[in-house]
Amino acid sequence: MASSSGTGNSVDHGTRRTRLSATAAALLVVGAGLGLRAVAAGDVAKYGGDALYTLLIVALAVLAAPRLTAWRAGALALAVSWGVEFLQLSSVPADLSRHSAAARLILGSAFNAPDLFWYVVGALGGWLVLAARDRSR
Fold first, then answer.
1. Which residues lie below 8 Å from residue 1, measured CB to CB, with a gap of 6+?
2. d(C-alpha 66, C-alpha 15), whole Å
3. In whole angstroms, what is the distance from residue 62 CA to residue 15 CA?
4. Which of 52, 77, 89, 102 is deepest in the core (most CB within 10 A)?
5. How far apart are CA 9 and CA 131, in angstroms?
């Protein structure tokens, strides 16, 4: 049985709190993305969705690894987003997207260079939120 004293319990509590916050953030980002699609169209919806996509990856990265620093979470999310975008230079995402709505949402289908900038915006947004959180601790 775990002791209620010592650092182990506070680490577990902090990890649990971080994961709960990351889960809430991920749900909020998904809601924002759905809301954006409902009220906006064209470039606003597309590029806003790109930034939110990367922000969601930041939240999921923190959910999976609660001790990630703000810099690492943002860099990881940016690397994943860019990796997916560059994968679109091949036919793999387009082929998968034709058969699966989930693949279309996760992988997209066609490379679009301006998306790379908007992924940076999302990663910076996540970094700012996490850096502010870290400073307040």
1. none
2. 6
3. 10
4. 77
5. 24
